[in-house]
Design goal:
2 copies of one chain form a homodimer.
Chain A (H helix, E strand, L loop, with lengths): L3 E7 L1 H4 L7 H11 L3 E8 L3 H14 L2 E5 L10 H9 L3 E3 L1 H13 L6 H4 L3 E3 L3 E3 L8 E6 L2 E6 L3 H19 L4 E10 L3 H13 L5 E8 L2 E10 L2 H15 L7 E3 L5 H11 L4 E5 L5 H7 L8 E7 L2 H6 L5 H7 L4 H15 L3 E7 L14 E8 L2 E8 L4 H22 L1
Parallel strand pairs in A: 1-2, 1-3, 3-8, 13-14, 13-15
Antiparallel strand pairs in A: 4-5, 6-7, 7-8, 9-11, 9-12, 10-11, 15-16, 16-17
Amino acid sequence: MSTRAELITIGDEILYGQTLDTNSHWISGQLDQIGIRVIRKTTIPDERTQILTAFAEAEQRASIVIITGGLGPTSDDLTKPCLAEFFGVGMYRNAEALAELEEKFTRMGRELNQLNKDQALMPEGATKMTNDWGTAPGLWMERNNTVFVALPGVPFEMKGLMEKRVLPALQARFVKTEIHHRIIRTGGIPESRLAEKLEDWEKQLPKHIKLAYLPTLAQVKLRLTATGTDIQKLKAEAEAEIQKLLPLIDKYVFATENIELEARVGELLREQHKTIACAESCTGGYISHLITSVPGSSDYFLGSIIPYSYEMKESALGVKNETLNTYGAVSEETITEMAENVCRLTGASIGVATSGIAGPGGATPDKPVGTIWIAVSDANGTEAKKYIFMKERKINIQLGAIAALNMVRSRLVEE
Amino acid sequence: MSTRAELITIGDEILYGQTLDTNSHWISGQLDQIGIRVIRKTTIPDERTQILTAFAEAEQRASIVIITGGLGPTSDDLTKPCLAEFFGVGMYRNAEALAELEEKFTRMGRELNQLNKDQALMPEGATKMTNDWGTAPGLWMERNNTVFVALPGVPFEMKGLMEKRVLPALQARFVKTEIHHRIIRTGGIPESRLAEKLEDWEKQLPKHIKLAYLPTLAQVKLRLTATGTDIQKLKAEAEAEIQKLLPLIDKYVFATENIELEARVGELLREQHKTIACAESCTGGYISHLITSVPGSSDYFLGSIIPYSYEMKESALGVKNETLNTYGAVSEETITEMAENVCRLTGASIGVATSGIAGPGGATPDKPVGTIWIAVSDANGTEAKKYIFMKERKINIQLGAIAALNMVRSRLVEE
């Protein structure tokens, strides 16, 4: 079994929803990479009894307890006195820590006040970890085979201490089980249908390989976790299972690594030396935004026209007045012209167009909110598809954009 | 003493550092607004014993326990069976939940499989909360004066259920004192400078009115919270304080209610019977996306041209070849033409244009990553401004879009 760790975050500002805790997310990822499993994260207020209870609970369950926050110089910073109380020891002023502080303040041309001097106070028996990135040193304390590490809550100080001092020390100390993760990203299939298709495959997985479904909007991430002692063997086993899985859900998998759909589309365009342009009506620029979020996208993204009004569909995109008047903007005929014209006007190898009713207004009896026509056009022809999402405005826009990118991806892998 | 709540997040993906938990941050903020204090947040794995222990611990300390995650249809979703076990009850298929599922699937033209049907399974005695945003209903269960609420982990489903069902129910049940919140939204001024300007005003606030700074990207939300027994009196007092505050930070306030900058720009355009169009290069469609995220934006948004390539800047937007060759795409001359041309081509009353280096590539010695030119043009002329954000790609794009919307807003209120 892998070594178990718990993370304790101390701070009222996180409990009140004023600060988003990204520290524990980052620490989890770092520990996972060295095969240490985080089994619980707890956030508690700057209150003595809550802190002591959390320490005691964590000690029961974990071999490593990493505490962030509450190391500062003000009166609401309680981590050090609580650690001293929990370990049943006193506090003393660490001479080396004081010297380091004095040197830092001299360099900054400032004088140490009493609060600053108190940053050199430490529980007896604690190992000091020098903080090269700020003024509060980290602490390492042990009892009954559980290690307590206390780190400042300021993200770059915490990261500096973790990378330079804590992670190497944990790695040296704890015998590690290897953990190997693989991510498979899918689009265009709901979690429940995916689960049906994978049921038999999941049942035949060896005990040390586990599958998790991580659904987000219109996409499901599959995570395969293999645990053991031989990392090369784990990698080979995971790869073998993925090779069995892929044929089952072939057309829904857009990547066998953890990258976004828009990044995968970008890779395909780059590999095939192709360019893309968009004509976005109801998605209002969101597809273009996703595509241009990817670094280097100017290599394959030529640009877009967002013809929100009827007039602009005609003037900027050359959709025929007759088509708009006969079939309306949300129709197969209009979307086909939009996709074909944006290719022609920009010279892109592939064009994608959207037109629909994002809502809440604009619905008609035969076109409910969430009706979106999407077309993809290239030298091999134009494909148009109607989707009915029936969600609220922002979600319809996101679903439309993801469906459009998925149609582009399909076209690129078919060819 | 205020009512105490705990949040339990269930999911291996969060403990492994693969998914950043933003749900508990958002829930904390919402509870804080109705005077409910979150005293602990716990994240635990998809494991029966860990889940049961966490439930039991939370019940000891809190009157409200909000659980997110683990409500999906697959075998690693354990929240419902664990709640049933914890409350010592069985599970049954809720007929109403099943009917809602069937209706949802019929509308989407899909058939229910066994896994979908199991989403209607509920612990006996639980109150179902209809999920209008997805397939897993929320649950409300009570024992010994502690309420357990279970919500799906998908953020927009969780938020929908919280806003529409959970928060009103918690408020009715637990909140005794009246709380009145007012939000003032500011842009273009950092938190520390805002705090300087508001220092004296904050000091003179009566004890029962508190100010909170809620900073987000390039914006700071100010929240005034008045607590007492007479809601009419609280409203009048808060309004009086806001009237004292506004002259101090006049040009940075874009709304005295909690609406987004793009919605405020939309209101101004609508009031003034004006239309807008964008020429977005480096922001790649993000301004258009923000504008069109607002319901009814088709009343004033005509459309955009996203001329990412040099060719499209000329062909679709009519920027002079000479201008591009002499000054480059990221220049005052080019951005001025872009803003003026998009007005002329679309007939919009106001045009906004962006061109810059989002990064990580593309920088030159005199144009570092994050250099963005923005121009706003209307019948009164064209204003161009250079910003240097020097952040990473996605942040530069967002900062550019917010700065552009802020320039549009300034132009609209000046006139």
